[in-house]
Amino acid sequence: MSKELRLLNFICILAALGFLAIAVISAVSSGDFLTTDNLFIITVCLVMALLFAINPLLYMRSQGRLPLPFIGRKDVPAVVGGNNTAAVAGRSDWAQLRSNAPPLLDAKGRAVPPDVKAIVSRMNQPETKDA
After folding, report:
1. Is 78 a member of any domain?
2. 54 and 8 within one domain
3. What is the pLDDT along the chain (131 residues), one digit of tens a residue?
4. Which among 39, 49, 41 is positioned nearest to 18, based on CA atoms?
5. What spatial distance separates the first Cα and last Cα of the chain, rounded to whole Å?
6. Are 57 and 99 within one domain?
7. What range defines the domain where residue 42 resides?
8. 11 shares its domain with 50
9. Residues 52-90 as b or e (16 or more Cβ within 10 Å = b)
10. Does a structural domain hold residue 77?
């Protein structure tokens, strides 16, 4: 499977570079840059280059080979005492989901999505009565 992905990503990169080359050639070889036809061809070529380049870039990002420099990774510390202590401490639902509690499973034994787990954890919290 990795050989096919590598080949498809290589073909996409070649197509993106080809469209970029066409846009540059169109910009350089035309006498008047600001004609409607020239701007249209350059725009279409740049959009097509972006379209072909997005899949290899997303694949490289998912594999960890393409770090994004301005986006920092924020790790939420795991909650020690379970879901109820996180609610008392005032932490968010995300911190509750990252706790060391066993995973919540549905009737077929599959893991429940995080949003459903947050709803269930809010339902299990004891209600405070107003005076």
Report:
1. no
2. yes
3. 689 999 999 999 999 999 999 999 999 998 887 899 999 999 999 999 999 999 999 999 888 888 878 776 555 444 444 444 444 444 455 555 555 666 777 788 888 888 887 888 788 777 777 76
4. 49
5. 63
6. no
7. 2-63
8. yes
9. bbeebeebeeeeeeeeeeeeeeeeeeebeeebeebbeee
10. no
